[in-house]
Write a structure and sequence with these properties.
The chain is mostly helical. The protein is built from ten helices and no strands. It folds into two domains: 53 residues, no CATH class; 154 residues, Lysozyme (Orthogonal Bundle). Helix 1 runs antiparallel to helix 4, helix 5 crosses helix 6 and helix 6 crosses helix 7.
Length: 265
């Protein structure tokens, strides 16, 4: 109905222009007689028509062209529908602390993660605040469908609650030992804390899914994992035993134990 009324309105404007053209033609002689060059004024009509055209613009074109432009103008769209972005990863909702899946949603809150870290190490050696670091894990993990609270627990294990003391040093922003293949190889460096977290989450995704990461890959060993395992993805944190850490006989179990301690904070 609204578009129909707009059509009637356009038709009325077109008819008005036609009438104005006829009147101006018949009265042109009278206008010349009354015109006083000493009192010349210029009146511009800026009423906007469809497509941003003004009445003065239309008056410079042939009448038939003006009418057709008004009648054929597309209807204006009011309140266009905003399309919400499609979630990058649809993941199962984690229901229990005894769920050992790598893919899932968080159970612990960000506040619980921060509290647990500071209860063990009040002065973590990181380039951002503990709150900011945890927020990166939740942002990156939830984007990729990786459980961020358990990934953070893994970072605590790998860095000794951000005390380090091993091959990796705090300036590397490397929170999971990426590329540290021996006691003498320091591994990967990342320009920021956020990029270090992103690489960690992407490395977990490389093991757990064949899906390409949402963000550009910053994990230097992502392609190595994908080419090694192909379609054989790992489902559980315990599956990382002997793969992420060697021999790593209880590697995944220790991460899950720390995660449950976080939830109980």
């Amino acid at each position: 109905m609204k578009n129909q009324w707009k059509f009637y309105g356009k038709t009325l404007v077109a008819c008005s222009l036609l009438g104005a053209f006829a009147v101006s033609f018949s009265s042109s002689a009278e206008a010349k007689r009354l015109h006083d060059p000493q009192m010349e004024t210029k009146v511009e009509m800026h009423q906007t028509l469809p497509g941003g055209t003004t009445v003065s613009d239309l008056q410079r074109r042939p009448l038939k062209e003006r009418i057709q432009e008004i009648l054929n103008a597309p209807p204006e769209v009011e309140n266009p529908v905003q399309t919400a972005p499609v979630p990058a990863a649809r993941v199962p909702v984690t229901q229990s602390v005894y769920d050992t899946s790598i893919v899932g949603t968080p159970l612990a809150t960000q506040q619980q993660c921060v509290k647990y870290l500071l209860s063990v190490n009040p002065y973590p050696e990181i380039s951002v605040s503990p709150e900011e670091l945890v927020s990166y894990y939740y942002e990156e993990g939830q984007r990729e469908g990786i459980r961020p609270d358990v990934a953070f627990a893994q970072a605590l294990k790998e860095t000794g609650f951000f005390r380090y003391g091993g091959t990796v040093t705090p300036d590397q922003n490397n929170y999971c030992g990426l590329g540290t293949t021996s006691a003498t190889v320091k591994g990967a460096y990342f320009a920021s804390s956020k990029m270090g977290v992103r690489a960690h989450i992407q490395h977990l995704l490389a093991y757990a899914s064949t899906r390409t990461p949402v963000e550009p890959v910053v994990d230097p060993r992502y392609e190595l994992v994908r080419s090694t395992y192909g379609e054989r993805t790992l489902d559980k944190w315990q599956d990382l035993n002997g793969r992420w850490a060697v021999p790593g006989n209880s590697y995944g179990q220790s991460i899950l134990s720390m995660f449950r301690a976080i939830v109980n904070e």
